[in-house]
């Protein structure tokens, strides 16, 4: 019994000892968790401190803070590295810094990077792109210092077209054609080939640039032709899809589709031509030797399904970049459409890859984004912007949305409505707001353009459609903090703006506070269809209707609203919403709740889609249409659309 008692005491001691160790361990874990939370909160709420409000006062960083939490180390270092690369002091001239007047005022965007889709990635990618661009600029300065004749080596880095004849090479199973400056709306890729081999299946992939550390690039469009079907069907089929390392393959779009209700419209064209896969009945008449045709009847009907590609037969296929997606025509007939998917936009495409059982005869890419050669530009001085300063107020500041490789659109705007006397005199100021590109050559061309014309404001993030609200914020910031404008306007680089009519309307309205002027929509609902480009989830907007908002091609707000937008952003009270025009409506109604008296002024002469005579703003106008509209305006002194007599 005594032995059993001693044994029990020994076991109890070991148990108490173990419990004591476990308790100490739990206390350490709890203490570690509390410290971890405190460290995380300090970095999430204030990842770095800023000083100064002058947009030309660059932020100085002394180095990364001491990391107390090993698990959070990579996140902290990543934030600090990105911040340093984007906002560190650079050896730039005062002239070079004119394109960065808004840049430093947007430094708090990193605190809002998770509020919009792709925000974090856009800032990270911008950090890499900016560092690369600054390095190339420094290198270029050294080269120029040693040899002034080196300018020619940089000309036409962005060619207007590329072609390759006899494209198939015997020792290659695929063919790549690179696009140095991506694609843009209006670009097209024409492929001439013959399906051959055992099956005749082949693929066309439009790919982007792989990020550092990623083995494969994203696929913006995977166009897979399967002449003998696949696991789902035995009939010929075209499969379209996308791929990214983060989300793998997306949802397949098949042509012909399994069900007819899936055939949606893209750029007003069917996702799949209804003729594809449909029976094409042909009457076959047979006659005996020497007989008269009139005496013979129908001998048989041969049924054949239409499919645009056929093994052993030549095809001419063209992929065209539209505003909503990519269209495919084969032998002159529209076959498929593919809507852009989030983060996979045409400017991202850096090459086309063609592989499989196909003899590639030629490939031609045309309508590629290309910059103007300033050395051969007529009246270059008249295209340069008028300098602005806060000490010189303007009646109207116009911010124009543009993407990095939209060189032609920006030039069309410079040559047309930016030539209004009000814009040339400086009473109205116009600037393009452009995010960085993933391709270094594009950023170099963009930088040269910005330095040449002085009318571009670079954004500290890579351009994604889901982030255009940040540009609206930037426009309000420029119009109130860089210049002092009575009114601030937002428009697009494919919109023709009659500046004189806009100003005449603002003078007639005679309201300088709480004004939203534009094509007002007072009765709209969120798109709940997940297939919609403008899909909004309940988490993003839970109410049944939006507050009043003005359509994006062009709207004006008064100075006080623009000022409040920037102030709320700095205070962390600005709701980020991915539809920028609706976002402005949301911001204004929030101001209204706090006592702002709002005046909504609807302008029926702003045309959201296309052009009508008497327009104030005409949307969806390409460079040629812009030049035509300007010429008509000069000749007739009236806002007449092109195509009219």
Task: Kindly list the characteristics that best describe this protein.
Jelly Rolls; 645 residues; 27 strands; alpha+beta; single chain; 29% helix
Helix content: 25-40%
Instruction: Supply the CATH architecture of the domain at 162-281 and 301-366.
Output: Sandwich
CATH class of the domain at 162-281 and 301-366, named Mainly Beta
Number of H- or I-type helical stretches: 12
Radius of gyration: 30 Å
Shape: globular
Strand element count: 27
Assembly status: single chain
Q: Please report the distance between the alpha carbons of the first and last residues.
A: 118 Å
Structural account:
- This is Beta-1,3-galactosyltransferase GALT1-like isoform X1.
- One of its GO terms (molecular function) is UDP-galactose:N-glycan beta-1,3-galactosyltransferase activity.
- The chain is of the alpha+beta class and 645 residues long.
- The protein contains twelve helices and 27 strands.
- α2 crosses α3 and α8 crosses α10.
């Amino acid at each position: 019994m005594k032995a059993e008692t001693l044994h029990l005491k020994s076991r109890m001691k070991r148990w108490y000892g173990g419990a004591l160790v476990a308790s100490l361990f739990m206390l350490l874990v709890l203490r570690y968790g509390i410290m971890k939370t405190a460290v995380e909160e300090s970095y999430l709420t204030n990842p770095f401190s800023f000083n100064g409000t002058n947009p030309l006062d660059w932020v100085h960083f002394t180095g990364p803070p001491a990391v107390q939490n090993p698990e959070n180390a990579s996140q902290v270092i990543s934030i600090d590295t990105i911040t340093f690369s984007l906002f560190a002091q650079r050896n730039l001239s005062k002239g070079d810094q004119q394109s960065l007047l808004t840049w430093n005022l947007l430094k708090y965007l990193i605190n809002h990077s998770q509020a919009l889709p792709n925000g974090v990635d856009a800032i990270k990618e911008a950090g890499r792109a900016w560092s690369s661009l600054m390095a190339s600029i420094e290198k270029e300065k050294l080269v120029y210092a040693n040899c002034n004749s080196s300018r020619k080596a940089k000309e036409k880095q962005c060619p207007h077209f590329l072609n390759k004849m006899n494209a198939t090479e015997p020792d290659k199973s695929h063919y790549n054609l690179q696009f140095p400056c991506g694609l843009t709306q209006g670009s097209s890729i024409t492929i001439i080939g013959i399906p051959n081999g055992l099956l005749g299946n082949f693929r066309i992939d439009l790919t982007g640039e792989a990020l550092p550390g990623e083995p494969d690039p994203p696929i913006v469009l995977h166009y897979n032709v399967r002449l003998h079907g696949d696991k789902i069907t035995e009939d010929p089929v075209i499969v379209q899809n996308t791929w990214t390392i983060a989300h793998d393959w997306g949802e397949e779009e098949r042509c012909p589709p399994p069900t007819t209700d899936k055939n949606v419209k893209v750029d007003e064209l069917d996702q799949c031509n209804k003729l594809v896969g449909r029976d094409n009945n042909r009457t076959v008449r047979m006659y005996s030797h020497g007989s008269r045709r009139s005496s013979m009847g129908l001998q048989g009907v041969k049924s054949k399904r239409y499919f645009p590609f056929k093994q052993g037969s030549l095809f001419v296929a063209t992929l065209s970049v539209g505003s909503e997606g990519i269209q495919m025509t084969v032998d002159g007939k529209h076959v498929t459409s593919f809507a852009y998917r989030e983060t996979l936009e045409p400017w991202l495409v850096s090459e086309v890859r063609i592989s499989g059982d196909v003899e590639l005869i030629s490939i031609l890419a045309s309508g590629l984004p290309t910059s103007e050669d300033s050395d051969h530009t007529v009246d270059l001085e008249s295209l340069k912007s008028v300098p602005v300063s806060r000490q010189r107020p303007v009646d109207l500041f116009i911010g124009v949305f543009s993407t990095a490789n939209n060189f032609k659109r920006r030039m069309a705007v410079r040559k047309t409505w930016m030539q209004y006397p009000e814009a040339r005199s400086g009473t109205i100021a116009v600037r393009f707001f452009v995010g960085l590109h993933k391709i270094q050559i594009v950023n170099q061309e963009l930088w040269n353009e910005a330095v040449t014309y002085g009318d571009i404001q670079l954004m500290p993030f890579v351009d994604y459609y889901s982030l255009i609200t940040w540009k609206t914020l930037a426009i309000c910031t420029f119009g109130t903090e860089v210049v002092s404008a009575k009114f601030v306007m937002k428009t697009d680089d494919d919109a023709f703006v009659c500046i004189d009519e806009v100003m005449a309307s603002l003078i007639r309205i005679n309201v300088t506070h709480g004004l939203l002027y534009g094509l007002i929509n007072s009765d709209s609902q969120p798109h709940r269809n997940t297939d919609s480009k403008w899909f909004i989830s309940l988490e993003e907007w839970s109410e049944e209707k939006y507050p009043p908002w003005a359509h994006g091609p062009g709207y004006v707000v008064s100075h006080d609203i623009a000022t409040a937008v920037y102030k709320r952003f700095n205070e962390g009270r600005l709701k980020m919403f991915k539809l920028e025009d609706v976002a402005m409506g949301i911001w204004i109604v929030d101001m209204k709740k706090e006592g702002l008296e709002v005046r909504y002024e609807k302008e029926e002469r702003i045309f959201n889609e296309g052009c009508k005579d008497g327009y104030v703003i005409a949307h969806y106008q390409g460079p040629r249409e812009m030049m035509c509209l300007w010429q008509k305006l000069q000749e007739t002194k009236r806002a007449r659309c092109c195509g009219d007599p």
